[in-house]
């Protein structure tokens, strides 16, 4: 039955390719009308938001946005499957302790998958996915990411997941031509490399930082590479092409947000999710999402912490869904540094990532703002050459971002290894204004 549901989900998703913005908007309006009526009737927290705002459901686009903290605070009455936050966290944390990710939660609505985010923004997110939502997710991923799409099932496919945590969600595709293997990131890297070499996957899914470290071991693989969980920087993409085609997926606790097209563009998943994009300046936008299909844990006018750059023009593939040029980083990781007149200037992570990625001989790095005018570069390797090139590249990038390096203290130090299972963040801000 799971294979049938998954295939139907993939075929349903295949029909949802819109060639005009007007047709896509009409599709979203139809979904929103039915979805919001159901959610408001089954989620007391969502209904309370509309009452507090004095808005009818038809004016949902005017609903004040919520965020992760508010979602967790109202979790017990937000979800529609009768799961408390305490219970969800207990199941998710037990799975992470035991490394057994097979259990699901039994609810009156049926079995529900529980997952936890890494919590790199300071608050660990929780997600609930019903069996029907799991099948739709699997079908969508199958069509967009499998080599050759659905036709890829004509030959055996071996999928390697290099992830912090396994999940029944990833194994929900049941097909005789598909084999899955979870590679636990808490295991030593040489062991993972040896097992991957023996497994010979046709599809590799993992964070680019982990896959790049795996690539440096010299393991030879021939597979399509799917970047998840972290920003895919150009230097990582170029290196991983040694294994095969490289594409990025934009997925978070809040859902499957963008998928690649055959031309390599990353399109917002607007067939299923409505995006309002709040301008942040410098051509960046912060998404406010409304998932038009997700019912177990509704996301209605939910503000994300990410900063996106969009492509201004249409994609050669003909899809009307907007496409992402780059994910600049999380708003919490934006640096606030002094400008020429001493004013505070925002420097987005992608400026520094681009600069440091071009430093000759630099394997890995992290830039961390540790004070109001203090920036520390953690470098691997930490040599006189990499120090000199990195400092010069960062000063140039700061000038382009209208920050003033002469008003700052820039220093370098060796990069400490990232603990296994930890999400890589190449630009961070550990300093917070008082």
Report on this model:
- InterPro entries: ANL_N_sf (IPR042099), CapK_Type1_Caps_Biosynth (IPR053158), CHP02304_F390_synth-rel (IPR012685).
- This is Adenylate-forming enzyme.
- Residues 399-434 are annotated as: Disordered.
- With 434 residues, this protein is α/β, with parallel strands linked by helices.
- The chain contains 12 helices and 22 strands.
- It has helices at residues 2-15, 21-42, 44-53, 68-73, 75-78, 85-98, 131-145, 189-199, 208-216, 234-240, 349-357, 384-400, and strands spanning 105-107, 110-116, 126-130, 157-163, 178-184, 203-206, 224-227, 246-248, 250-252, 255-260, 266-268, 273-281, 284-291, 302-303, 306-310, 323-330, 335-338, 344-347, 364-371, 374-380, 409-414, 427-429.
- A hairpin with a 2-residue loop joins strand 1 and strand 2.
- The protein starts with a helix and ends in a 5-residue tail after the last strand.
Main pleated sheet: 8 strands, antiparallel
Query: Based on DSSP secondary structure assignment, what is the total number of beta strands?
Result: 22
Can you tell me the residue ranges where pLDDT is under 50 for at least 5 consecutive residues? 1-8
Distance between the termini: 56 Å
Helix count from the secondary structure assignment: 12
Shape: globular
Strand content: 25-35%
Give Rg in angstroms: 22 Å
Helix-strand makeup class: alpha/beta
- Summarize the amount of helix as a percent range: 25-40%
Biased composition (Basic residues): 422-434
Protein name: Adenylate-forming enzyme
Organism: Deinococcus soli (ex Cha et al. 2016)
Region (Disordered): 399-434
